Write a sequence for this structure.
């Protein structure tokens, strides 16, 4: 079903303080039947960069802001526990792994540090998020009627990018961004693995390419 028909009780979006993440939060809150719980995570909820999110939270009681560093396993575990508390006995319907970083650099300038940091955030992050939130996703799947897989039941959506396509190598001239491309190609494979492993639990896993969006990340080397 398309986004207009999306009917979920609970959704979590990482990297929610700006760009696509913030746009998703605004969209979800504006739905005719908005989710009962919208969990927005970002690294520094109290900081200047999360101001818009704070403003939204003051207007929408169903929006909960949670601090989360997707490259930090302890931070992920703490966030999963917090989300579980809010949900009580019910599960999480939709996990959107949107947080990502890109470092604009030429291949000759790629470093171990940049490669590792980008991969850790863009690929390992969604892996660890899937592991930590699986119990809540399973709970949502069990509490939902029907045997089919759907975003309204229980799902993991990984925000990928056509920059990760080996065939297209989208806008190479714009920026070689090799670490970013590698991390997104790996994320596509991770998504495939998650879909095979989590299917038996009733959890749908898919990768979305949002198109080139004019966000801080899309227009320059932004940290979302």
């Amino acid at each position: 079903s398309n986004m207009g028909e999306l009917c979920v009780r609970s959704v979590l979006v990482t990297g929610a303080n700006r760009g696509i993440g913030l746009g998703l939060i605004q969209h979800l809150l504006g739905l005719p039947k908005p989710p009962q719980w919208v969990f927005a995570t970002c690294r520094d909820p109290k900081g200047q960069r999360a101001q818009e999110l704070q403003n939204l939270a003051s207007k929408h009681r169903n929006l909960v802001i949670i601090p989360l560093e997707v490259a930090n396993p302890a931070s992920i575990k703490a966030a999963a526990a917090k989300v579980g508390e809010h949900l009580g006995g019910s599960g999480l319907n939709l996990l959107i792994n949107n947080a990502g970083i890109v470092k604009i650099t030429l291949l000759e300038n790629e470093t171990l540090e940049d490669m590792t940091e980008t991969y850790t955030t863009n690929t390992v992050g969604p892996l660890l998020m899937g592991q930590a939130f699986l119990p809540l996703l399973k709970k949502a799947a069990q509490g939902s009627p029907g045997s089919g897989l759907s975003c309204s039941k229980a799902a993991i959506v990984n925000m990928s990018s056509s920059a990760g396509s080996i065939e297209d190598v989208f806008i190479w001239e714009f920026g070689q961004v090799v670490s970013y491309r590698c991390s997104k190609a790996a994320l596509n494979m991770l998504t495939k693995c998650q879909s095979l492993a989590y299917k038996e639990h009733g959890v749908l896993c898919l990768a979305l390419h949002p198109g080139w969006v004019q966000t801080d990340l899309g227009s320059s080397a932004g940290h979302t």
Remarks:
- The chain has a mean pLDDT of 87.
